[in-house]
Design brief:
alpha+beta; Glutaredoxin; globular; redox-active center; cytochrome c-type biogenesis; oxidoreductase activity; Thioredoxin_ResA/DsbE_sf; Thioredoxin domain-containing protein
Length: 172
Amino acid sequence: MNRYALIGIGVVVIAGAIVFSMASRDTSGETSTSDFDTFASISLTDYHGNNVSLEQFRGTPLVINSWAVWCPFCREELPDFAALQQELGSEVLVIAIDRREPLEKAKGYTDELGITNDMLFLLDPSDSFYKSIGGFTMPETIFVDVNGVISFHKRGPMTLEEMRDAVRTHLQ
């Protein structure tokens, strides 16, 4: 075999390995159960500049959404998360964690949507939360039960009805 044939075969093998790796990832929206401790101590900041650790919400059913201003799907679903929080009251806490954007940008965006005061918005300047949940799409949402178990991990956008169903199925 000549050198170019060997290079071609090598490229095909590498490309095949990449395609197989991507195809074997879970794209159904649900991942295996994980533990709250993987991200509970991450330091986040609220819109008032207060440091917040997710640890303080241990024992509370949580819906945690990772979002960013540049994400068009986030614009569509953030008002639905706010509506979900309004519907559920204190039964479940909905938290939206912005990825690596300054306060002015994130808050300006939620002000524009008219939802700033409807749920808890946190800032993650180091993107630690997103990394801790193995994020690779936008947006990503996790549902954490009262025992601190991530019972559902949705990759990609959700409708309000999907959010309601996920809460009923995984948190109640």
